[in-house]
């Protein structure tokens, strides 16, 4: 996990990188990883989500405010790229400022049972912004990269949230993943990181380490991140072992 201050900084940094990428582009390009959205609408979703989180943090909300403004996006077409880029960064600044004023231990509503919801929102929206930056830049032909520590933490949070028992309440069909002999090894070839996803028990267990598994997926950190988040096809990485199990798992883990 990164520091609270680093998360605050990264929310703005990642938003600035996306803003720079879209500032002089045609934003009507479709976003394959978010079907039905254009880059214009993707940016509106991200910026609206950041403002929504800022409201939760700033008001110490006891219940979630409406999120309709960043879910219904059909009206956002043909916006000026430079103006939209500035609007995006303003929302990131607003969230970072709200988090600074609240501090990491402030209490408020959160969508999951967490001890430190302000820290949760800081971390979650760092990674939300990282992944949506990929959504927004890849259709424009802009290379997507991320620093190793941020990329590792983005994957680590994915693992932690996917393994939460409460996720079975949101998606009961995920229990179909659990069966004897189902283990998955993930290996970043350009970073000191390996994980095991253990589906053999009554719960999903994700742990760091190197173990012999039913199937292994290995490749550069960015490719692993994008494959896990459903932003890149599994052909971007090397698969060793039970490819059908890996495909079955990837189709049923859709967090993020």
UniProtKB/TrEMBL annotation:
Q: Which residues form the Mycothiol-dependent maleylpyruvate isomerase metal-binding domain?
A: 11-135
A molecular-function term among this protein's GO annotations: metal ion binding
The residue ranges of the MDMPI C-terminal domain are 177-247
Q: Which SUPFAM superfamilies match?
A: DinB/YfiT-like putative metalloenzymes
Keyword field contains Isomerase? yes
Gene3D superfamilies in the cross-refs? dinb family like domain (1.20.120.450)
Per its UniProt record, what InterPro entries does this chain match?
Answer: DinB/YfiT-like, Maleyloyr_isom, MDMPI_C-term_domain, MDMPI_metal-binding
Task: Give the signal peptide range.
Answer: none
Keyword Cytoplasm on this protein?
no
GO CC, sorted alphabetically, is: plasma membrane
Q: Which UniProt keywords are present, listed alphabetically?
A: Isomerase, Pyruvate
Name of the protein in question: Maleylpyruvate isomerase family mycothiol-dependent enzyme
Task: Please give the organism.
Answer: Lentzea tibetensis
